[in-house]
């Protein structure tokens, strides 16, 4: 794979509880030299939709599940502190801004609220995470 030559000590994946995010966590686990730290960010770590991620984390001590709402600066700040505790000043090597939402609408049914939520999550969220 194209990531085969990549040696990552620490990675944070947002939206890690299902879909592509969960797939990325599984991919990192399968690497010949898996990251020392895999931070799995998700909105509701204890929820039903994070069951599979919880199972993985119980088997792999290098997976740290981080409660993370990418649209909430306070949540991001708390996540940064939690990640920092594990990294002990060494810095995060890789951030994968995977969290995103999709609201399917036609022009007739589109709402300001849904447009705002999509933009906040998919555009502002990665900006805040990058900062």
Describe the structure in your own words.
This is DHB2 dehydrogenase. The chain has a four-stranded parallel sheet, with helices on both faces. The model has no long low-confidence stretch (mean pLDDT 95). With 131 residues, the protein is of the alpha/beta class. The protein is built from four helices and four strands; from the N terminus they run E-H-E-H-E-H-E-H. The relative contact order is 0.18. The two termini are 29 Å apart. Strand 2, helix 2 and strand 3 (63-67) form a beta-alpha-beta unit.
Give the helices and strands, then pairings.
Elements: E1 10-13, H1 19-30, E2 37-42, H2 51-59, E3 63-67, H3 73-87, E4 94-96, H4 112-130
Parallel strand pairs: 1-2, 1-4, 2-3
Tell me which CATH architecture of the domain at 10-99 applies here.
3-Layer(aba) Sandwich
Can you identify the CATH class of the domain at 10-99?
Alpha Beta
Low-pLDDT segments: none
In N-to-C order, the SSE pattern is EHEHEHEH
In CATH terms, the superfamily of the domain at 10-99 is NAD(P)-binding Rossmann-like Domain
Beta content: 5-15%
Radius of gyration, in Å, reads: 16 Å
Question: How are the strands of the biggest sheet laid out side by side?
Answer: 3-2-1-4
List its salient traits.
Rossmann fold; 4-stranded parallel beta sheet; 131 residues; 4 strands; 4 helices
Brief write-up:
The protein is of the alpha/beta class and 131 residues long. The protein is 42% helix and 14% strand. The chain has a domain at 10-99: Rossmann fold (3-Layer(aba) Sandwich), CATH 3.40.50.
């Amino acid at each position: 794979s194209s990531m085969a030559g990549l040696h990552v000590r620490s990675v944070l994946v947002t939206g890690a509880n299902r879909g592509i995010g969960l797939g990325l966590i599984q991919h990192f686990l399968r690497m010949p030299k898996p990251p020392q730290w895999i931070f799995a960010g998700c909105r509701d770590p204890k929820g039903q939709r994070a069951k599979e991620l919880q199972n993985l984390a119980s088997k792999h001590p290098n997976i740290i599940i981080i409660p993370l709402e990418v649209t909430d600066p306070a949540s991001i700040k708390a996540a940064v502190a939690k990640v920092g505790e594990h990294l002990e000043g060494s810095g995060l090597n890789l951030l994968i801004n995977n969290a995103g939402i999709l609201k399917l609408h036609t022009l007739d049914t589109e709402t300001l609220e849904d447009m705002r939520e999509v933009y906040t999550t998919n555009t502002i969220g990665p900006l805040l995470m990058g900062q």
